[in-house]
Amino acid sequence: MATTITNQATLTYNFGTQTATAESNIATAILQGPITAEKSSLDTDYTEGEDITYFVNLTNSSESALTNVTVTDDLGTYAVSPTLSVTPLTYTGPAQLFINGIPTTVLVPTVTASSVTFTIPSLSSGDNALIAYKATVNGNAPLATASTVENTVSVTADGIVETVTDSHILTVENYADVEIVKAMSPSTVTDGSTLTYSFEIFNYGNTDATNVVLTDAFSPAPTQITVTVNGDPIQASEYSYVNGVLTLPTQGAATSITVPAATFTQDPSTGEFTTVPGTVSITVSGTI
Prior knowledge:
- A hairpin with an 8-residue loop joins strand 19 (178-185) and strand 20.
- By secondary structure, this protein is mainly beta.
- The strands form 8 sheets. Strands 5, 7, 11, 12, 13 and 16 form a 6-stranded antiparallel sheet that branches. Strands 6-18-17-8-15-14 form a 6-stranded mixed sheet, with no helix packed on it.
- 0% of the residues lie in helices and 57% in strands.
- It has no helices and 28 strands.
């Protein structure tokens, strides 16, 4: 690990019968350890279930080879409570080792529920090693807006007293994830009776889905339709219904449909997050 050395000099002097002092500027230098480590990723943000490609970049800056270079990634493990820690990343691999930019071998790490450890038997003086590997975002990763996953690598080697560490932070992606489920009732309908189409719209993302437009082509096309959004009647001027094709809202309408973001709740006993989607209900009723 690099250490910053700072130094400032003070002098005293006399002029006549008086004594005065002067201070120098603060000079700095970098004391470089025998190995440096830098953690990075191909991605800048994450969503649940996404594969993240990580890189650990190591350089042997000492004058001799380093042996048993061990790199441990904590996979973002964090404390939910004083008695519970959870891990938001799952190592999936594979792990490729590059020496001075040249692929050399596929590493077989030691994997636990809360870490993954890679070992490089030897790294020559001046050599650079790059480990590239994948981890998957699991159900312990927070998904609310502005949430982060921070994972830290710790590097040791024979003869190195101080562990070298570096951390990397990913921020959750802001996204809307919308699904729609349609139903009709009653299940059996006769000519001249009323048929109701129900649309349940769910947003599993952490950001509102705005300017939602519903389009449906009914066949056979019901007549004398009525439309509601979350139980509120919608005036006919706010939607288009031509030849059995419904567009809600129509272009230029004052009505707008927004499906609110989901809420995310973490179980204090397991650390796993539960997603409760934001919802919007739309009904269309007409005579068949």
